[in-house]
Specification:
It contains five helices and 16 strands. Helices cover 28% and strands 25% of the residues. It has one domain: Creatine Amidinohydrolase, CATH 3.90.230.10. The strands form five sheets. Strands 1, 2, 4 and 5 form a four-stranded antiparallel beta sheet that branches. A four-stranded antiparallel beta sheet has the order 9-14-15-16. The radius of gyration is 17 Å and the shape is globular. α1 packs across α2 and α3 runs antiparallel to α4. It binds 2-amino-4-trifluoromethylsulfanyl-butyric acid (MF3) and cobalt (II) ion (2 copies).
């Protein structure tokens, strides 16, 4: 199956879904404090999605996932299940991954929060991981390839002595949550699928402080680092435009522009 090229009508719906997902992460920030449980964060996001945004939390019941967001703490790589028994403490890092469905279209984004006062080590991992996401986004434009995105991420991660999780990747997104193509976070320049205007997909690098190996817990969802060292993740949903890229899940705390491209630059200067 070829990768879907979105129509202008579909893109408008992706913008709306993306904006709602981004707004969730902005909304939840004030609650990410020592003492809160990940189940409380889940309940707040669930209620906000359903009651305020009139949208659907995509993770809930997705392939049997029991909650509305994923909360992945410290050595949990991704797909952590919110729990009443998981209380956050100062120094923890927690990735909150939200996906909303609005008018049939998905917006998928995540951010790693540092709870209270984080160690220098934790802050460094979290920042470098966000920089990897940004470098991946900056490599996305028509004519470039998925390999260019993966390579940009891999070079920055490895230069900083972090390892990249290989088992999970970004994905095409639209009316389908996890669509083609697979967007891996490593690669060779010029290899893989060539990007075209109208493609929408996520980039969501997971960086480990230790080795790359991961393990799936018996709950069937929680992915942890084999060596139990710290891991971080950041995710955006993006659109390939005529001359660059648009970050559909852009937040006010992002330090990358919402639109990147020759035209956007021309307007800015
Ligand atoms: N939001 C995750 C992603 O980035 C997927 C979560 S699926 C769930 O692709 F079932 F674990 F919620
Ligand atoms: Co995703
Ligand atoms: Co996600």
């Amino acid at each position: 199956m070829p990768v879907e090229i979105k129509t202008p009508e579909q893109i408008e719906k992706m913008r709306i879904a993306g904006a709602l997902a981004a707004e969730q992460l902005e909304m939840i920030e004030q609650y990410v404090r020592p003492g809160v449980t990940t189940a409380e964060l889940d309940r707040i996001c669930h209620d906000y999605t359903v009651n305020v945004q009139d949208a659907i939390p995509a993770p809930l019941n997705y392939k049997g996932f029991p909650k509305s967001i994923c909360t992945s703490v410290n050595h949990v790589v991704c797909h952590g299940i919110p729990s009443d028994s998981k209380k956050l403490k100062s120094g923890d890092i927690v990735n909150i991954d939200v996906t909303v469905i609005k008018d049939g279209f998905h917006g998928d984004t995540s951010k790693t929060f540092v709870v209270g006062k984080g160690s220098v080590m934790a802050n460094r991992l979290v920042s470098i991981c966000q920089e990897c996401l940004y470098l991946g986004i900056e490599a996305a434009r028509p004519g470039n390839t998925l390999g260019d995105i993966g390579h940009a991420i891999q070079v920055h991660a490895e230069r900083n002595r972090y390892s990249i999780v290989r088992e999970y990747c970004g994905h095409g997104i639209g009316e389908i949550f996890h669509d083609e193509p697979q967007v891996v976070h490593y690669g060779e320049p010029g290899r893989g699928l060539q990007l075209k205007e109208g493609m929408t997909f996520t980039i969501e690098p997971m960086l480990n402080a230790g080795k790359a190996g991961v393990r799936l817990l018996p709950d069937g969802w929680t992915v942890v680092t084999k060596d139990h060292k710290l891991t971080a993740q950041w995710e955006h949903t993006i659109l390939v435009t005529a001359d660059g890229v648009e970050v559909l899940t852009h937040r006010s705390d992002d330090t990358i522009a919402r639109r990147i491209g020759t035209e956007a630059e021309a307007v800015a200067s």
